[in-house]
């Protein structure tokens, strides 16, 4: 599907920059006051453009130009277009109307303008679609890290499931492993290929790429590059190793950046992270990078949570920390147009998490799995999540909410081994402008069956209503009417969850995995898709995929151990 720039602009609400100091009758000039304009088409693809205020006649009237608009068509970029708009009065169609909200009317395009600093008009957090072949349909990368490949047990593989108009299907399925032509590495020396996966457009060509890391000594990061044919062609081993990594746009240039755990200056007495600013070249080189010391080494860096928590259109980083069996406080690092700052703000303890605007105020909120101060046996605990609401300075230390299965309205009971919050994902399931949160509870027991697992969907709620609570929460498992399968001990349903729009209806859909699901072999694994609607998740049309359906190895595969998409 082609990307394109608007030639006839719809009525769109976009906040203008503050005008320069001048009288109402004296014209003045504003020298290249730039804005970023993020255009998202109906498929969820980003179309990057730039806005620049070029002249002022009064503080309420100025002209703007589309200085750059990347279309990714075979015909080259669209022509430069210029439009003038006012901050008040009646304006014709095909102009930009100044207002204090960011929205699109009667159009498949959504426009988001930001100045790079927090303002009164926050920009909601945005997650790019995973689309390996750039056909406009969301794809999934499902890892089976313990699958047998070419007679090598536990070599592991990744199943690439391509999207269709009705959601992910079996057509075009790819099984990628160290045995796949073009993938670096020796199959015989491989262990748990796909133990970690991360999708994102690393080289800026509009195709989603996939970063894959194996387990043990086979942990070299491999980039599988996207193309019109999917994840094929040249693949790259990045020239370094790391155990934790995440993607985001940490300098607001519209390109994906990679943050990895590192040891700054090779100093064994400190821990840190390195931000590699994209785009990457096909030989794994990045444009520039910056290393930041996160602590003195007594509190190792354990994971990254990324997303825009300040409403400025730039992603931020939350790092979680611990040492041996102890979990320490997390830290917030603010992204900006010049990159990630070197000063952190302390948060409470957290193990992992996600970002989503659960109260619809335009600021991304931080949702974390909080295991307290001890991390030795995290899945033995009942589980708890904490929501820290975002604002112009990041996650609030006072406006926050703790939710467990003992919270009023949340289905089930808070019991040992439930692991409530083992996986988390945020997305707007019902299209009301507020994100729901899918909470994986893989240790949940149903009747006499233990560890069957479940997913609990927490409903987004407005700030005026107090934000997210347990009100309206629903539970889903294989015993739920309409969900395929049967709940059995050890299924691990909800080990991984993802909320993303799989069928292009503008509402987030749920993907949940159960790596312990039995097929012809024990622990072969499977995944389920439940679709969003105006009334929430529906089990009507719920689908399931497994190794046997995809023609992939089953034995001990643990399909769905990790999930990208």
Automatic annotation (TrEMBL):
It comes from Streptomyces scabiei (strain 87.22). SUPFAM superfamilies: Integrin alpha N-terminal domain (SSF69318). GO terms for molecular function: hydrolase activity. PANTHER family: GLYCOSYLPHOSPHATIDYLINOSITOL PHOSPHOLIPASE D (PTHR23221), PHOSPHATIDYLINOSITOL-GLYCAN-SPECIFIC PHOSPHOLIPASE D (PTHR23221:SF7). The keyword Hydrolase applies. It comes from the Bacteria. This is FG-GAP repeat protein. Residues 289-299 have a biased composition (Polar residues). One of its GO terms (biological process) is cell adhesion. GO terms for cellular component: integrin complex. Keywords: Glycoprotein, Hydrolase, Repeat, Signal. InterPro entries: FG-GAP (IPR013517), Int_alpha_beta-p (IPR013519), Integrin_alpha (IPR000413), Integrin_alpha_N (IPR028994). Residues 1-29, 262-299 are annotated as: Disordered.
């Amino acid at each position: 599907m082609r990307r394109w720039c608007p030639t006839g602009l719809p009525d769109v609400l976009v906040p203008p920059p503050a005008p320069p100091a001048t009288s109402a009758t004296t014209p003045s000039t504003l020298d290249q006051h730039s804005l970023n304009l993020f255009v998202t088409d109906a498929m969820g693809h980003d179309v990057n453009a730039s806005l620049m205020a070029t002249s002022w006649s009064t503080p309420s009237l100025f002209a703007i130009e589309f200085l750059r608009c990347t279309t990714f068509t075979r015909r080259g970029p669209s022509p430069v277009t210029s439009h003038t708009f006012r901050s008040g009065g009646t304006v014709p169609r095909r102009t930009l109307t100044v207002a204090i909200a960011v929205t699109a009317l009667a159009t498949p395009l959504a426009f988001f303008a930001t100045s790079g600093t927090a303002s009164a008009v926050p920009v909601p957090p945005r997650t790019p679609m995973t689309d390996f072949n750039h056909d406009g349909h969301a794809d999934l990368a499902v890892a089976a890290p313990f699958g047998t490949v070419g007679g090598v047990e536990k070599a592991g593989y990744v199943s690439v499931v391509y999207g269709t108009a009705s959601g992910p299907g079996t057509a075009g399925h790819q099984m990628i492993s160290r045995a796949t032509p073009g993938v670096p590495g020796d199959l015989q020396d491989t262990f748990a290929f796909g133990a970690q996966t991360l999708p994102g457009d690393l080289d800026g060509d509009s195709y989603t790429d996939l970063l894959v890391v194996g387990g043990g000594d086979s942990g070299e990061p491999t980039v599988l590059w996207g193309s019109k044919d999917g994840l094929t062609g040249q693949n790259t081993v990045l020239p370094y190793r790391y155990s934790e990594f995440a993607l985001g746009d940490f300098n607001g240039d519209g390109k994906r950046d990679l943050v990895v755990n590192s040891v700054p200056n090779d100093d064994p007495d400190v821990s840190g992270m390195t931000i590699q600013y994209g785009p990457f070249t096909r030989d794994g080189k990045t444009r520039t990078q910056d290393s930041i010391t996160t602590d003195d080494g007594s509190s190792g860096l354990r994971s990254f949570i990324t997303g825009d928590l300040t409403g400025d259109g730039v992603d931020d980083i939350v790092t979680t920390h611990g040492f041996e069996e102890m979990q320490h406080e997390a830290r917030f690092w603010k992204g900006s147009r010049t990159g990630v700052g070197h000063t952190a703000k302390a948060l409470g303890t957290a193990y992992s998490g996600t970002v989503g605007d659960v109260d619809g105020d335009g600021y991304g909120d931080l949702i974390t799995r909080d295991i307290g101060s001890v991390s030795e046996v995290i899945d033995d605990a009942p589980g708890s999540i904490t929501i820290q609401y975002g604002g112009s300075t990041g996650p609030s230390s006072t406006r926050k909410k703790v939710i467990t299965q003992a919270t009023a309205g949340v289905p089930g009971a808070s019991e040992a081994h439930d692991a409530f919050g083992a996986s988390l994902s945020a997305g707007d399931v019902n299209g009301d402008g507020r994100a729901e949160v899918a909470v994986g509870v893989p240790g949940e027991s149903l009747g006499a069956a233990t560890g069957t697992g479940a997913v609990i969907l927490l409903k987004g709620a407005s700030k005026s209503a107090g934000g997210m609570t347990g009100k309206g929460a629903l539970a889903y498992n294989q015993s739920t009417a309409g969900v395929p399968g049967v709940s059995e001990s050890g299924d691990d349903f909800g080990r991984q969850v993802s909320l993303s729009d799989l069928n292009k209806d503008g509402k987030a859909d749920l993907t949940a995995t159960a790596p312990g699901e039995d097929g012809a072999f024990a622990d072969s694994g499977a995944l389920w898709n439940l679709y969003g609607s105006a009334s929430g998740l529906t089990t009507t049309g719920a689908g399931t995929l497994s190794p046997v359906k995809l023609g992939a190895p089953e034995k001990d595969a643990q399909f769905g151990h990790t999930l990208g998409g």
